[in-house]
Amino acid sequence: MIALIVALGGLLMGFDASVISGVVKFIEPEFDLNKLELGWSVASLTLTATLAMMIAGPISDKYGRRTVLRYAAALYAISAILSAIAPSFLFLVIARMIGGFGVGASLILAPMYIAEIAPKDLRGRLVSFNQLNIVIGISLAFFTNYLILQLGKSDASWAINLKLDEYNWRWMLGLETLPAILYFFGLFFVPQSPRWLIMHGRFAEAEIIMAKVVGADAAKIEIDRIQKSIELEENKEEAKIKDLFRPGLRLVLTIGIVVAVLQQITGINSVFFYAPMIFEQSGLGTDASFMQAILVGLVNLAFTVLAILFIDRLGRKPLLSFGVAGIALSMFTLSYAFKTAEFSVSPELITNFAEKFDSSTLESLTATVYTSESDFTAALATKIEAATLEEHQADIVKGSINMNTSLTLISILAFVASFAISIGPVMWVLFSELFPNKIRGIAISFVGLINSAVSFVVQWIFPWELEVLGNSLTFLLYGLFAAFGLIFIIKVIPETKGKSLEEIEKQLVTKD
Fold first, then answer.
1. Contact (CB, 8 A) for 341 and 475
2. Strands (E), 443-484
3. What is the dihedral of CA 205, 207, 210, 214, to 10 degrees?
4. Angle in degrees, CA 320, 323, 325, rounded to 5
5. Eight-state DSSP code of residue 188
6. Which in 80, 171, 357, 498 has the greatest CB count within 10 A?
7. What residues contact 12, with CB distance under 8 A and at least 6 apart?
8. What is the 3 state secondary structure string of 65-77?
9. Is the CB of residue 255 less than 8 Å from the CB of residue 492?
10. Secondary structure letter of residue 370 according to DSSP
């Protein structure tokens, strides 16, 4: 029960990060955003989440895991409410950044708390609740976005009174308030971490809590073990960031950095946070694009469960090799699908844009089929004034494109499945195994910071890449990054399944 309540932080994190996928289509015209501003509306949350990841641990050491998680729940609720009522783009970004602090804190502290209170024979399974909840939160965000879109079009009086159609994106963001409040009050039924209590000399309280978890006799043994472990840690010289760059750690640090970068630079958050946009750019309507985003979430959930089931059976390296190969193949296929797309102006498109500008100027283009988006855009530029074209170009291209939408859907679903069964969850397992005990904490923080930084950049520039480089080249680059990553995995990364941490250290860490 405790693990399920605490893991709600993971659900909120997944929901908060992915709900923006349904919002970007509506805030771009409402706030008149350029592509980098649109990317900033998505990536700003990751920026403050990264900062929170750096400070949440030390703060929780002082005030307690449960206490900081309550503040995180409050930040989620405040962010959701402020985002829903945002009168301007700047206000919305600030509201999202407030939520980012909650995301970073819960991402670090929820699994930490569960690991500290769980019986050792159930620790892996219970800690995995958090990762599973993150994926469920992502799927839930895709589903509620679609549901709000559909309810906004209904004739139900309550939907009309709530203005679900007029304020659709505001309801998408504001809906998070409900689970955030549930999480806040649920944490009052959660005890303090026994390990944190022992760190602060509150042994009697720790024993009462631990006895409820593992029984009275086992609780005394466990508390004695924790106390000795803490005393041992206090006697050790504290690891410093410069220790990571010792010559003997060069290999494990290289593996950690490459895997941290690879997990994000292959475009996973571009897909999660912009899924409806990608599907719309393949020629699907808004409803269909939101519906297919739900499929992305469900596939992500299913293959994350498979990864949890198979990581100790098949090993880390086979899952990584298979998954990253699938990522590369999926992105190459997606690039091909957009590369072979054709563009043509139909009479229906001219009619649809008649109220927005003098679209009759496009009639001379109806006889030509363009095989290049850049050529098509150049042709549009000869018929439409620059300012008008800039305002409507994306919608005109969406209405003119003809491509294999089934291939696009299959490629994206295959990409998400490949990620979810491999480098998504396996990265964190590798981080916990590769680094020696003394520097493990600071090393994971360091590579985690790199991972978050790359994630921020990928999310921020993705709309700009689509506008400047085009869909095909953007996805081709993701595929090339994955291909280089696959070569690195095969040649450099060892298999760690079934090996003790000491054996792994002996294999990978050399004397300076």
1. no
2. none
3. -160
4. 105
5. G
6. 80
7. 73, 76, 102, 103, 106, 137, 176, 179, 180, 183
8. HHHHHHHHHHHHH
9. yes
10. B
Helix axes 286-314, 423-434, angle to 10 degrees: 40
**Distance of alpha carbon 300 from alpha carbon 418, whole angstroms:** 9
Residue 83 structure tokens: 């985002």
Each domain of the chain, given as residue ranges in start order, spans 1-190, 203-235, 342-402
Q: How far apart are CA 453 and CA 257, in angstroms?
A: 12
Cα-Cα-Cα-Cα torsion 120, 126, 128, 134, nearest 10 degrees, comes to: -150
Residue 175: per-residue pLDDT: 93
Helices 65-84, 35-63: inter-axial angle, 10-degree rounding: 150
CATH homologous superfamily for the domain 1-190: MFS general substrate transporter like domains (1.20.1250.20)
Q: What pLDDT score was predicted for residue 282?
A: 66
Burial level of 8, CB count in 10 A (0-12/13-18/19+)?
Answer: buried
Long-range CB contacts (within 8 A, 24+) of 219-228: 222/194, 223/194, 223/198, 226/194, 226/195, 226/198, 227/198, 227/203
Query: Which residues lie across from 401 on neighbouring strands?
Result: 343
Q: What's the average pLDDT block by block, 10 residues per block, for the chain (512 residues)? A: 87 86 86 88 88 82 88 95 95 94 86 76 69 85 88 85 89 94 93 81 80 76 71 60 80 91 91 75 64 84 86 86 96 92 85 82 85 81 82 76 85 93 84 72 78 88 85 93 96 82 74 66
Which pLDDT score is estimated for 413? Answer: 92
What's residue 292's pLDDT? 80
Give CA–CA dist 452/457, Å, rounded. 9
